[in-house]
Amino acid sequence: MQYKRMPIEVESPEQLGYNTIECNLAESSVHDAVFKDLNLNLNDLILCYGDHLGKPELRELIASEYPGITSQDVLLTAGAASALFITATSLLSSKEHMIVVRPNYATNIETPRAIGCEIDFIDLDFSTEFQLDITKIQALIKPNTKYISITTPHNPTGTVIPEKTLKALVELAESGNCYLLVDETYRDLTPENQLPLAATLSSKVISVSSVSKAYGLPGIRIGWLITTNKQLQGLFLAAKEQIFLCNSVVDEEIAHLFLMKKDRFLPEIQQKLRKNREIVQNWMKSNPYMEWIEPSGGVVCFPRIKEEVKIDLEKFYSTLYHKHKTLVGPGHWFEMDKRYMRIGYGWPTAESLTRGLANISNALKETAG
Ligand SMILES: Cc1ncc(COP(=O)(O)O)c(C=O)c1O
Fold first, then answer.
1. How far, in Å, is the centroid of ligand 1 from the Cα of 105?
2. Are the beta carbons of 269 and 215 closer than 8 angstroms?
3. Which atom of ligand 1 sits closest to the CA of residue 108?
């Protein structure tokens, strides 16, 4: 493995220091929950090794949401990040080939790269509204293609693929004898027109998610891999046992107690999202410097500074952070031009979001020629 730190992690708010940022528009989740607000009692918890697949009651609860999925199809992991790592390291080697959408959550690209496998990218384009072109993917499948990797709702663009595209991808994986990895970490943040859980569609599909983004619990590292393919699940379990054996039982307990009563928290989360989304929509309408493809799911969008705007991009980001104490996710976090920026609208309060967006406008005015 050729590990390399990723800019999105080196420059993340937690690494820069939350105290250096007043308006944090760089997060890709809803706001972090506070333990006491969850009103959980862990006093009787035994701090033993946990079940290697993950706490059975939590796996059952997760499985119960999806038709045809049983607790044996669910492997708990340390966040979605380790689910992606387990998938990549279990399936890929320098002899294998994979196809991945770009831009993407960096790990979906960087771990295959660290493994040294052959990678083909499916580059999403602003001009086609960041939509996936199935024919391009089809043309790239080879005998040694191990999997196709997509993210929906997508990070950083917030696009959601249509159900017919998901089904066509499943068919491609089946006919191409490869797997389809669907990173669905933002799935629960798309209440309208939700797609079926991808793993319910075929044993060739691996679904990945976690409690980090939709519920604001990234500090407990709980995610999961779902696949109905028993052989694959066995391979993933072997990988998990070698990497970290089992999850933290404390994390599993918190995730379980939380998910049992998640419906109490969801309406408030969704109401805040609707309001914050409107704030971004209104800001985009009145912003002469930028253009965007409106997101249809998740909590992030990926607008860009118009091509005709002359601007010193380094100066812009520096002014935005150092003078206006506002952080966004610059394009290079996603191997894209820095004219693009990811704005996370689910994490900040409405007031902080409004101020942060005004700071972006001010930094643009101050640095555009
Ligand atoms: C698409 C996507 N997948 C996976 C992750 C990893 O999340 P976690 O490991 O906290 O579950 C992220 C985090 O930003 C993400 O955006």
1. 7
2. yes
3. 3
